[in-house]
Specification:
about 270 residues, DNA polymerase, domain 1, hpI Integrase, Chain A, two-stranded antiparallel sheet
Length: about 270
């Protein structure tokens, strides 16, 4: 198993850092659990996929892990060894127990404000007000704040997003206090841009004081909240896909899925029972 060479191959294809780490982790898990030869046969990959499903993993989770192994087969030059993903029926509504509500988001902001976590407060607002991925946070630079727009490069693509005027004012004041004249606005104590793990920990530290369940609090849920809020106002799925940097509108649909409670209220309003 040549994971170091696989890493280089993924980097050459401009995969994001998060994707690379996940693919390496899932591929290593595959070889550890399956005991397969290298490169693996299609039968070995298929058997592992089915074993994951039998252990109760959701189809989306299985397919995400399978994508890593199928990509490894491409790297090895053995695409005939790839297994088909599990078929999934599109869900009509999302799990409300994992989606962050607008009210819960504001409770997190209030908790950050009351505990003096100024950088955390600004990070949360920046992620939620722009809809960017947490991995794209370093593209929010002092230069972008002055221009009122940021050029985001991710997964081999580039898109430009506008920054709300009020957010620019707040970030501008932050940069002035911290004497940040160029480069990323949000920095760790080491001087390096904040990474995904650090932001995750910053958010989790607010849960108890904010009274928000920990399983709802992670950076990507702010992106979901941005998407639901935008779609509620604009009802333009194609434009939302462009803002989020999605290649497929089908991916965007997942972000705007209503909760089970909302779906139930809609069913009740139909009044189809005598």
């Amino acid at each position: 198993m040549t994971l170091n060479a696989y890493r280089v191959w993924l980097q050459q294809r401009e995969r994001s850092a998060g994707t690379i780490e996940k693919y390496l982790r899932d591929t290593a898990r595959f070889f550890r659990e399956s005991g397969a030869a290298d490169p693996p046969t299609r039968a070995a990959v298929t058997a592992w996929r089915d074993a994951l499903a039998a252990r109760g993993y959701r189809a989306a989770t299985v397919n995400a892990m399978l994508a890593a192994v199928n990509s490894y087969q491409e790297f090895c030059g053995t695409p005939q060894g790839k297994a088909r993903p599990l078929k999934r029926q599109r869900r009509v509504f999302c799990d409300a127990g994992r989606e962050l509500s607008r009210a819960e988001y504001f409770r997190l902001l209030d908790a950050a404000r009351r505990t003096g976590r100024k950088q955390t407060l600004l990070v949360l607002q920046t992620l939620c007000a722009t809809g960017i991925r947490v991995s794209e946070l370093p593209f929010i630079t002092a230069e972008a704040v002055r221009r009122g727009r940021a050029a985001i490069r991710c997964k081999g693509k580039c898109r430009e997003i506008l920054l709300p005027a009020e957010l620019c004012k707040r970030l501008g004041r932050w940069c002035s206090r911290r004497r940040i004249h160029t480069g990323p606005v949000f920095l760790a104590r080491t001087g390096r841009p904040l990474d995904r793990i650090t932001v995750w920990k910053m958010m989790k530290a607010l849960c108890e004081r904010a009274g928000v369940a920990r399983e709802k609090v992670f950076p990507h849920n702010l992106r979901h909240l941005f998407a639901r809020t935008f779609y509620g106002l604009e009802k333009n799925l194609a434009k939302l896909a462009d803002l989020l940097g999605h290649s497929s509108i089908e991916t965007t649909r997942i972000y705007i899925m209503e909760s089970g409670a909302e779906h139930r209220r809609m069913l009740e309003r139909m009044h189809l029972l005598l």
